[in-house]
């Protein structure tokens, strides 16, 4: 095949070029990347002839996503290739951070310090089978493969449409994909497309340390963050039982949340990881002998079948149990020292209930002004804003304390799964057979991609009750953070993830298997897309 990226060596060079375009989340590099990507695609013959089929769409903070459409004039069936171009930071590289975007130079430096690495990394370094660098696995190699595929389709006149979409911000809040959903619907209408598959290119994630199996994924795990604002009762440190520290109160719920199997789900024989605490701490900003009376905690929960309403119900039940236990222990301590408890109960309140209470007390204008002033604060991220809004409301409704306010903090990734879709079953059979016959490569089906992905924002099948509960209990829901649930429901095509093999994403030893990324996976995906196009005849 002629063209810019038709050989393994050309594809490798393209991947290294994309890695060289630094694009850490929330940096200038992330802002500039899609324009550079557009310029690169415009070098192809097809997009020089059809420049109107490449576009950049606005996200936020000057960031943009890119779409590029190869349109066969007689085809409606369309495969959407999804990727993200943002990366995590490079702090863990230490003095080698400037080389994190230069795979060849980074490998040379790694050779000099190879004794620092674990035996598996040393062996991979010595083998010459891997490329190293930030984002080379997660996931600029996937983007490069998609670019090569869309060029090849245009040169060979494949009888199927291909829409490439690459977005920013996947590693933080997935704003790129959430904003891009409407563009997918617009393009569908504009060009008469029939989306038949959303194919992501995230790399293979190991199930356990040392796992070198290669997987394809027929779904993507969900992630939600139930969170709590704890409000105790302030007191002087010399009169500890005259109040209750938020630290003490928070430990009761955190102990119940951490590793709690009540949140576990098993679907298709695969289980969700147990919940953990991502953030916990008091909100006291200065030293004094006044006890801390406000604290926050943010918990990570993975999902497969459950929606936001299900998670909130479980969360609320555990919060009520923890509040009762904490109150019981407080009463016992008071009795032991011969004093009367200073309060009778610890309330558990959902954020939506707190808002309704504050509206009755202060009026809607007050609530709207409070929320607006917080949302426009550039110094706070969406998680901090979530707690701040709930905190101000509760500070002005202290008659509800001591208490625990339950809320959701962004981001939210709904689970998605297409394992039982007959079309996906056919795709899996084709891909696994093709990989084995052509490359002697065994690909194992996994039902949920465990690395979290932007596939969460297509093929949404939940009822409105689930997302309404999320909207009502997410303090920042609206302009700074929203999810296009209804639009996502319209993107009905099933999902699949096929990406290259690598190791150690988000570590300084992040690396990509050269043969798999530049020879095997591109051909396997090409065969699948051609198969989909031929099926339409």
What would you note in describing this structure?
The chain is of the alpha/beta class and 537 residues long. The chain folds into two domains: 8-221 and 414-439 and 482-535, 3-Layer(aba) Sandwich (Aminopeptidase); 223-408, Alpha-Beta Plaits, CATH 3.30.70. The protein contains 16 helices and 21 strands. Strands 1-2-5-3-6-19 form a six-stranded mixed beta sheet, sandwiched between helices. Strand 1 (54-58) and strand 2 form a beta hairpin. The mean pLDDT is 95.
With strands numbered from the N-terminus, the spatial order across the biggest sheet is 1-2-5-3-6-19
Shape: elongated
Assign a percent range to the helix content: 40-55%
List segments where confidence is low: pLDDT < 50 over at least 5 consecutive residues.
Answer: none
Number of E-type strands: 21
| Overall pLDDT level | 95
Give the C-level CATH assignment of the largest domain.
Answer: Alpha Beta
Helix/strand layout:
Elements: H1 8-20, H2 28-41, H3 45-49, E1 54-58, E2 64-70, E3 77-84, H4 103-112, H5 119-127, E4 130-132, H6 136-156, E5 161-167, H7 175-191, E6 194-200, E7 214-217, E8 219-220, E9 222-224, E10 226-231, H8 246-257, E11 266-267, E12 270-271, E13 276-282, E14 294-303, H9 308-337, E15 347-350, H10 351-362, H11 364-375, H12 382-395, E16 403-408, E17 416-417, H13 422-439, E18 443-446, H14 464-472, H15 485-490, E19 495-497, E20 502-503, E21 511-513, H16 514-535
Parallel strand pairs: 3-5, 3-6, 6-19, 7-18, 15-16
Antiparallel strand pairs: 1-2, 2-5, 4-21, 8-17, 9-14, 10-14, 10-16, 11-12, 13-14, 20-21
